[in-house]
Amino acid sequence: MTARAQRAGLGELARLFLRLGTVGFGGPAAHIAMMEDEVVRRRRWLSREEFVDLVGATNLIPGPNSTEMAIHIGRARAGWLGLLVAGTCFILPATVIVGACGWAYVRFGTLPAVGGLLYGIKPAVIAVVLQALWGLGRSAVRSWRLALLGVAAAAATVAGVNELAVLAIAAALGLAWGGSRRSMAIGGGLAAMTGSSAAAGTPFGLWPLFGVFIKVGAVLFGSGYVLLAFLRADLVQRLHWLTERQLLDAVAVGQVTPGPVFTTATFVGFVLGGVPGASVATIGIFLPAFVYVALSGVLLPRLQRSSAARGALDAVNVASLSLMAVVTWQLGRAALVDGWTVALAVASAILLLRYRANSSWLVLGGGAVGLLVTLIG
Question: Nearest-CA neighbor of 286 among 257, 261, 309, 268?
Answer without folding.
Answer: 261
